[in-house]
Amino acid sequence: MLYDFHTHTFLSDGVLSPVELIRRAVANGYTAIAVTDHAGLGDQERVLDILVKECEMATAEMGIMAFPGVELTHVPPKRIAEAARKAKSLGAKIVLVHGETIKEPVAEGTNQAALESPDVDILVHPGMLTEAEAEMAKKAGIYLELTARAGHSLTNGHVARTAMSVGASLVVDSDGHGPGDLLTEELAQQVAIGAGLPHDAIDAVLHTNPQAIIANMVG
Ligand SMILES: [Zn+2]
Ligand SMILES: [Zn+2]
Predict the structure, then answer these.
(1) Can you say how many angstroms the Cα of residue 69 is from the centroid of all Cα atoms in its chain?
(2) What is the largest CA-CA distance in the chain?
(3) Each residue of 33-66: pLDDT tens digit?
(4) Domain boundaries, position 58
(5) Tell me: the pLDDT tens digits for 198-208?
(6) Could you say which ligand is closest to the alpha carbon of residue 176?
(7) CA-to-CA distance for 134 and 196, rounded, in angstroms?
(8) Structural domain count, the chain
(9) Ligand 1 centre from 53 Cα, in Å?
């Protein structure tokens, strides 16, 4: 059982086509993948038009559950709710928001705006997440991400501790942009344990939470 809800293709800044990425995920033993290219208000149609078709084909023919999505990236905070709603209307099964990673000058207020948006499912690489933001995530049922991506992962320990302190739900994603970036079961475990999660929390983060996200997407 291996799940990953955050990956990129050459439709944004990844290197593989959607079907190449999905085939690699099958080879790594994935149960499910979400393909979530960077997008905003201007390019969601282009990205989702392709991802919806490719994920439908892969789910039917390739022995994996593949879900089309977007990672709303550098959308001004006050337009995030609108962009998320639009993504869902265009066929996105899952909407991620590119959170306030310490690696990039993400607009202040992005985490909060994401957590106030009913169509957002995961706030990814939330950086110096505050306890108030973690509380909002818990209340909204929005997942917070521990990432395998170099750089963004610098704050995994802080994100894990802050989320756990209020009982907000976590997932582990690859944020894969290339063939070497995808998760394996071992890597997902290492990211979770390396972030400081206690061993008895690992099963929820790696299995129960992803299964709930999938139930929500297929329901
Ligand atoms: Zn991102
Ligand atoms: Zn990403």
Answers:
(1) 9
(2) 43
(3) 999 999 999 999 999 999 999 999 999 999 999 9
(4) 3-218
(5) 999 999 999 99
(6) 2
(7) 17
(8) 1
(9) 23
The ligand that comes nearest to the alpha carbon of residue 104 is 1
Q: Residue 35 is encoded by which pair of tokens? A: 């393909």
Rounded to 5 degrees, φ, ψ at 116 are: -95, 0
- Residue 47 tokens read as 């990205």
Question: Ligand 2 centroid to 197 CA: how many Å?
Answer: 22
Token representation of residue 195: 């972030």
Ligand nearest to the CA of 175: 2
Whole-number Å distance, alpha carbon 13 to ligand 2 midpoint, is 9
Residue entry with tokens 């499912």 = 121
Question: Both tokens of residue 203?
Answer: 């099963």
- Separation of 184 CA from ligand 1 center, angstroms? 20
Cα–Cα distances in angstroms (integers) from residue 102 to residues 62, 125, 158, in the given order: 37, 9, 12
User: How many CA atoms lie within 13 Å of 74's alpha carbon, on the beta-carbon side?
Assistant: 6
Q: What is the pLDDT of residue 219?
A: 83
Alpha-carbon distance of 38 to 27, in angstroms, equals 24
The enclosing domain of 90 has a CATH number of 3.20.20.140
Ligand nearest to the CA of 70: 2
Dihedral pair phi/psi, residue 71, rounded to 5°? -110, 105
Tokens representing residue 59 in the block: 């789910």
Question: Per-residue pLDDT averaged across 154-180, rounded?
Answer: 98
Q: pTM for this structure?
A: 0.98
If residue 68 lies in a helix (H) or strand (E), which one and from where to where?
Answer: strand 65-72
Ligand having the closest approach to the CA of 177: 2
